[in-house]
Amino acid sequence: MADRATTVPSAARSPVAGAPAPGAGVAAALLVEDAAARRDAIDPARSFLVQAPAGSGKTELLIQRVLALLAHVERPERVVAITFTRKAAGEMRERIVRALADAHAGAPVASAHEATTRELAQAVLAQDARHGWQLLDHPARLAVSTIDALSNALARAAPVGSGLGAAPRFEEPFRRTVAHYVAARSYAPGITHFRAARP
Asked: Where are the beta strands (DSSP E) in the chain?
């Protein structure tokens, strides 16, 4: 449950067509509000729902949040980041590893956001050294996956509790049924479960 829903303002946000550009005072106030919301959102003691427009830095904020959490756990697998696509999960993992590698190498930072990421990555590297994680050598220890992969892993970990058996998978008749339903309706709100394949 989120402690608070926060909207991260963005100075880069496009103005509404025909609306006057904000004055310097309003822009400065938005930047202060933005910085405060970003600081709050990476606090590992709290939960947040972040809403912001495209290009406002949500992914970077999520990377910072993951780094902040990693600095407080004994095993990196205790922090789970979930996204919807494999591409996004791969990009997220790659950006976390890049932040750690840049911090390890002492690469220069170009912005305040990068400085925050660097500080968090250095804290993770210190935790890594204390516990012997070797994340730079073993980035697969970072639990970044899709919601489908997480659901599948949970079903495999508890086959009896999930009611799906040892190796759940979609059956071909189910695939045809879904394809037909989606083609007819353009969406599939009525599909709530699938049968486990029987050996």
From this structure: 4-7, 48-51, 80-83, 143-146
